Amino acid sequence: MCIRIPTALLLVLVCGSASAATDGIPERVKSLGRWDRHDPVTLRAGYEPWSPEDAARLLELYQSAYLHLTYNDASPAGLNTVPRVAQRIDELQEIAASRGISVRGRLCLSDRPDVTLRLPDLAQSCSAHRGATGSCDWEGAMDGRHGEAEVVVKASGSAAGGTAVALADPTQVWTPALYRHRLAVLRPGQPDEERRRIVGNDSVSFEVGQPWASPPQPGDPYEIRGSFDTNWVMRAPREVHEATLRRFWEDRRICGDTPCRPAPFPLDPLHPGNPRGFLPWMDREAVSLLATAATVPALYGWGYDGDIAAPITEYSALPHQWSEPHFRANGVVLDLRNPAFRAWRARHAVYRLAEYGLAPGEGACLAVETKPGLHAWYDEAALGPAGTVCSAPNTNTYFGPSQICRDTQSIGAPLHPTQYGPGEFEAAISAYFRELVAALAENGYGDVQILTVEAPAFRNELWNTLADDVRRMPQMRGVEWGTIEPRLAVLGSAAPPPTAPPQAAPEAPPAESPPSWSLGGDDASGSASPITQTGESSWSDLPSASRSSTRGATGPRGDMKSGGGGSDGAAVEAPSLR
What we know:
alpha+beta, 3 domains, 10 helices, disordered N terminus, disordered C terminus
């Protein structure tokens, strides 16, 4: 199976037919499109519904392309939407096998290691008592089986008593089902310590899957442990946070010749008086609790205008005249410099492959995305001011943090300037891919290869944020270089598939609560081609045989555009990272 990740650094793990980029120069491959946009349940406006048989036949017709199953996914494992998708993947594989179609390494899941989301504890998509197989905690259904360290204490106390398979503590007020899959440690550190897996909890007790050897007695200490440490969330100094908020809307003539309307709410997303600082799928309370007097969690999000439900970006809803700009967070930024986080994130990818039914040995494909233009250090002293329209001065990033950068556009990005120092992001992302490949092999996925989506093109070069040994790893397949997006009419034609299939019809901005969560933009804005970019990550529709480690000079804008994204219209509660 393949995975694709949009926007500046996407790596797809593919165990497929194409050769890996052992020379360090990425091969260019195309995606058929995103199957979730064509899913009849989550069908997006302007896209035809694709059945598993349709998808199999398209893979047969476009033999060098792969199918992108999800988009920029950084959701917790165990969502209740996944089993239906996994069943469709199984059906596609069965149909392909019966027709002699090779799909090995061509069914790709998304993964986004530098940003994640925390869903509310009672969200429909992740809460066990509402039909999901995981929980809404940061880990979801992760339960130690793939080697993640479970050393983070989520809750602790003293038992009032218990049974052979339960422990009660009436002093607690737990969210029901929150600790499903977490590790219970009874009498931690004592000679009779016992460890069991929690299968469910109510507000004052939890149940374990295997009986205790010595059931809890009154006064016995216990801990509930997990694997995700909130210290991995990148922080920004509070003074930087406040300066960024001022810069976001002050002293910029983004509302034309008239001043912008006064904001009806505080513009700080973390301010309790701001009801629209977070999109509804984010657990605002949990994220806000990460703030201290000195620092705030680094937020990821978009520029919005007034009460318009969709973000205003250069990829959609243009032209637009701003009237009341503000920022809404849809995720938090993770610090890839932390080895413990990288180890956890690599195992998160293993869980996602398994839950989508991509078993070891099937040749899975995993797409991993980060945005080097937003994280990698830009040496302004040596290279001069960054040339992109949305860059901000003195932020040490090529592309700059999230902002409204002119009257008609904004970018999706971290709210704050990068906290990575010179060379730190480059070293961290290279370390992550080494560790990801090792974790996959450790869990039986050693045949998975890696594909980057959108290059990553940074300072006009492909893969230049990656160390040479990473670029030359056998698992590194190449770069997604555009999307085909064929119409089903090609399946009834005897003619060979067109090199530039018709683009999906433009669509109106969708309502809020999209099913996918993108860190990039949207390509369905009515532009001339869905496979054309300009500027810094320019990837036009060139044949995949044309392989180069660099591109031509950027234009005056140097913009980074995503090959897909935007907010899908169907109301799926747990979006994937966008």
